[in-house]
């Protein structure tokens, strides 16, 4: 029961930090330092993947209308009083997936080629803390720079293939340096090239589906799923909690950025990065 309660806590933290630009990795490192689950390293690795899948499912549910290409349309029959329904491909959705694939390519190449090496060399508190602070400062600088500018691209549909690829390049930074925050890097990239906050955030959420799902499935195939019934309960609880919390957090962020900027998240990252350095570098 105690491990299940821990799974709830980790699911909550994952659901919150995966979508806010504050680095889920940094929070997981800190939480794991104070609330360790009594599980094997292999199961722990799988657990982190499964709760991430729960967060992804929340995006799929919320954005289903935007990402599913098959649409029911009403077509005229032989008589005007006899309309019929048909299934057709939505070109706008296909175009969005095309941009998503273009944005995914840079990080996918880096991830597949260097994933194990990057985890071995960069997955540590020092890199995480530095990137928390660096990206936090970048958010504050970019928001100050953009405060009197009108975004060049106001909507997600208006994002060009060139802009999508540029956002994908920023995602590489998150793939290489833990603590960057995948959502933080892509949103920051969007803001830097003139994409509005809502458009950058929406594209970031959809971009997460193939990126996070692909990385998670690769790890699941690598780790296997031979666990005890109790361990499966822990996995299910963590995934469901992450899913439910993600639903609320995504809606909150989209509502928040209509009237506010990302500077508070930048300051939060700086403080968190300093706390990580203080704890691991000085007190630990």
Automatic annotation (TrEMBL):
Localization, UniProt: Cell membrane
Give the UniProt record's GO annotations in the biological process aspect: cell wall organization; peptidoglycan biosynthetic process; regulation of cell shape; response to antibiotic
Q: Signal sequence span per UniProt?
A: none
Q: Which InterPro entries match?
A: UppP (IPR003824)
Q: Name one Pfam family in it.
A: BacA
Reaction catalyzed:
di-trans,octa-cis-undecaprenyl diphosphate + H2O = di-trans,octa-cis-undecaprenyl phosphate + phosphate + H(+)
| Keyword terms | Antibiotic resistance, Cell membrane, Cell shape, Cell wall biogenesis/degradation, Hydrolase, Membrane, Peptidoglycan synthesis, Transmembrane, Transmembrane helix
An example molecular function term from Gene Ontology annotations = undecaprenyl-diphosphatase activity
What is the membrane topology noted in the UniProt record heading this document?
Multi-pass membrane protein
Q: Name one GO cellular component term.
A: plasma membrane
Q: Does the keyword 4Fe-4S apply?
A: no
List all membrane-crossing ranges.
43-64, 94-114, 120-142, 163-180, 200-221, 233-254, 266-283
Q: What class of enzyme is it?
A: hydrolase
> Quick check: keyword Cell membrane in the entry?
yes
Give the Enzyme Commission number.
Answer: 3.6.1.27
Major location category of this protein: membrane
- Main role? Catalyzes the dephosphorylation of undecaprenyl diphosphate (UPP). Confers resistance to bacitracin.
Q: Which family does it belong to?
A: Belongs to the UppP family.
Note on file? Bacitracin is thought to be involved in the inhibition of peptidoglycan synthesis by sequestering undecaprenyl diphosphate, thereby reducing the pool of lipid carrier available.
Designated name of the protein: Undecaprenyl-diphosphatase
Q: What is the lineage of its organism?
A: Bacteria, Bacillati, Bacillota, Clostridia, Peptostreptococcales
Name of the gene encoding the protein in the UniProt record: uppP
